[in-house]
Amino acid sequence: xxxxxxxTSAQSELQYTLNSASSSYGxxxxxxxxxxxxxxxxxxxxxxxxxxxxxxxAQPFPTVCFGAVACQNTSGTAGSIIGTSVTPxxxxxxxxxxxxISAFYVALGM
Length: 110
Fold this sequence. Notes:
Layout: H1 9-12, E1 25-29, E2 35-44, E3 49-52, E4 65-72, E5 81-84, E6 90-95, E7 101-109
Antiparallel strand pairs: 1-2, 2-7, 3-6, 4-7, 5-6
């Protein structure tokens, strides 16, 4: 079983499911202190879009974000989607081609 973050009711509602009514994100604490954050981001293009985990009610990774991966959720060609400029609070997602792309992302950190 996965463990919940301790937090407000808004945070605890987002632990296991992607909730589009609540900004399309969530996070789960895994064994060994590893934290997985996940969500849906829109508007990705060849200009980077910033995913900000420090925006309330979400919380940044306490220490470090090891990296993020994204998978295209829209039809059409996006080329590859790359996570750049990874910090404990943010990651920038950029596509090698295309505009208006939405993608699911997963990030791991501690």
